[in-house]
Each structure stands twice: as C-alpha cells, then as structure tokens.
Specification:
Elements (H helix, E strand, L loop, with lengths): L18 E5 H5 L7 H13 L5 E7 L9 H15 L3 E7 L8 E7 L9 E2 L5 E11 L4 H14 L5 E8 L6 E10 L3 E7 L6 H18 L5 H6 L1 H6 L4 E5 L4 H11 L6 E4 L6 E5 L2
Helix pairs in contact: 4-5
Length: 282
C-alpha cells in the first residue's frame, strides 16, 4: 500500500521455464516506451535457474533514457554474466525510442544454471573499442557524423576502433551513439542519446567522454555495471570482488536491499563519488 514501510515476499513456487511475452504497450493500454531491458533483467536470473530453457519476448522501449539500452545488455551485461555461467542469447529486432516505444527484444535463456563468483579486480589491457551510431527516420548524415567524430576522438588509443553508422528499424524517430570497450577481463558500455537541437558531433563527444572518464579509473566495472552486478553475484557460488569506477547511491541502495534478504553479506569498500570495491562473501 502507499507509504508502506515494510514488504513481505514469500515465493510460492520455483521459477517455471517456458515462453513469455511482456508487451508494455498492452499492459499500459496505450503506446509506451517503458524499458523492456529492466523487465528482462528482472526475470533473467530466475529463468536461468529454472529447470529448463525459456524464451522471452519483450515489446516497448529498448533504447530509452534512465535505463540500460538493449545494446548494453547485448555487448556488456550478458558477456560479463557469461563469465559467471549465464547462457543467454539476445536478439534486438526492433528499436524502441521514447516516446513511441514499439521496440522488440527477444531473449533465449538457458536453464539449470548455477552462477559462480568472480574476481574482477584487474581489467587488463584495452583490446578494442566498437560502437553503433544509430538513427531511425533521420537523414543518413546523422549517424555518419556521429561515426566520424567518435572515430576521430578514439583514434589516439592505439588499438582497434570500429564505429558503424547504422539505420535501425523503429516505429519512432531516434538517434544516438553506443560505445562498448573490451578489456582483457571485462567489458564497458556508454550511451549518448540524440535530441532536438543537439548536434551529432556533440552526441559522439558525450559518449566518448564517458568512456575516457571510465578508462582513466582503472576499474573493472563502470558505474552502471556495478549496481547491475549486485544481485547476480549475491546468488552466485563463491566470493566475489569487483573494482568499481564510481560508488554511486544506486549501488549502495542495491547493496542495502539485497542484504535485507539475508542471503550473503555484501558490502562496498569506498565512499560515494569515488572508486571502490564491491565485495560479496564466500
């Protein structure tokens, strides 16, 4: 109820494998760009621990503000969880932008999985940086200008850099740049969304600046990945230690929340706004 101070959660059954559809537009009764990725992250771990394989189809927003974009899950979140034992295949069929939505994301989830803890304290050398300069229902020069600017800013790294201009299928108008960096032992992703009045070059600069800011920290998990790893590492077997680029209030909140369930002791070494280490006991 509104303003309740406590929550009692008592699962009645084990997660069941199967085929699932989450259509945010149908749930809301109107067109919606609600984040499909947040729903997928909610059901992904239970389905991975179910007794069989599952398929999840999600419709709504796939690249929207204040939530992980579908390319982030595909090129960062899922590869990191693969190292923990997760097996999932993502297909980003249709891009859904705010406010229209209408995107579609498909996930094929392998069941009977037991995640294992990890030591992500040294990320190793940067191996490559790739990117998607995407646009829907906009002139071809929009993604090309983002590509040109990002490539120019990243070329001094001395490693492979490939940014692809791409026109993507979508019922709505949208544009942006998603960069993903592959280090020897981890991945990191950075999104900048276009908006009316913001030059394509500036969109590219915002994403590149986010990458360079992270790169200088030497940490394994950028600020968004850090809080998204709390739950998977809590249910994994064995201890985990992850260096994080920035201790955020979101990370601290997630750590506090999982500790309320009494599964494992989870804590953060470091102060808010600075680099730190996420610890999960063995």
């Amino acid at each position: 109820a509104l303003e309740s101070q406590t929550l009692t959660f008592v699962p009645q059954t084990s997660p069941k494998p199967g085929s699932y559809l989450f259509d945010i537009s149908r749930m809301s009764g109107t067109g919606s760009a609600g984040a499909t990725t947040l729903i997928l992250q909610t059901v992904l771990l239970p389905l991975a621990m179910a007794s069989g394989d599952s398929q999840v189809r999600l419709r709504g927003g796939t690249v929207v503000p204040m939530s992980p974009p579908a390319p982030y899950l595909e090129y960062v979140y899922v590869p990191v969880l693969f190292e923990l034992g997760l097996r999932v295949r993502l297909i980003h069929r249709v891009w859904g932008f705010y406010p229209t939505g209408g995107g579609e994301l498909l996930a094929e989830v392998k069941g009977r999985v037991q995640l294992k803890g990890c030591e992500l304290v040294e990320r190793g050398p940067l191996q490559r940086v790739e990117g998607i300069a995407f646009a829907a229902h906009l002139p071809s020069h929009v993604p090309q200008r983002m590509t040109n600017r990002a490539t120019g800013l990243l070329k001094g790294l001395g490693i492979d850099v490939h940014v692809e201009p791409r026109h993507v299928p979508s019922p709505g108008i949208g544009a942006g740049l998603f960069l993903y960096a592959h280090y020897a032992h981890t991945w990191a992703g950075f999104l900048s969304l276009g908006r009316r009045g913001l030059p394509s070059e500036r969109v590219a600069e915002i994403a590149c600046r986010a990458f360079f800011d992270f790169h200088r920290t030497g940490a394994c998990a950028e600020r968004h990945l850090a809080d998204q790893l709390v739950l998977p590492l809590t249910v994994a077997l064995g201890p985990s230690h992850v260096t994080v680029a920035c201790v955020t209030s979101h990370l601290l909140t997630n750590v506090w929340l999982v500790n309320q369930f009494g599964i494992r002791d989870v804590w953060v070494e470091g102060v808010e706004g600075e680099t730190g280490v996420l610890h999960v006991e063995g």
